């Protein structure tokens, strides 16, 4: 079955950086679009960024210019480089196997990102 395991979250000060990773198994990783979604306290799941199986990339306006998504198909790993972090980026971040530009689909357990002084 599909398994997605995120890592790399933590506590960081505003303006700082983090790199999230997600290892996928149970499916042919390279064939699928992969996305990052996030859920802030008391809010719904929000799509953050996606990368298609053919390398197409897109970002939510709220993170454009600050976050970089990438994938290593040989390692079955999805990444999210987050720079210039803001308090409003605080959320649980999920790796999502699903349609490009969507937070709907199979997801992992999530990794907490907290941006605070």
> What string gives the helices and strands in order?
EEEEEEEEEEE
How many H/I helical runs? 0
Ends distance: 40 Å
Query: What's the overall average pLDDT, rounded?
Result: 97
Question: Which shape, going by the Cα principal axes?
Answer: globular
- By DSSP, the count of extended strands is 11
* Biggest sheet statistics: 7 strands, mixed
Pairing-aware structural class of the strands and helices? mainly beta
Percent of residues in beta strands?
over 45%
Spatial extent as radius of gyration: 13 Å
**Which spans have pLDDT < 50 for at least 5 consecutive residues?**
none
Would you write up a description of this structure?
- The chain is mostly beta strands.
- It is built from no helices and eleven strands.
- The strands form two sheets. Strands 2, 4, 5, 6, 9, 10 and 11 form a seven-stranded mixed sheet that branches. Strands 1-3-8-7 form a four-stranded antiparallel sheet, with no helix packed on it.
- Strand 7 and strand 8 (77-82) form a beta hairpin.
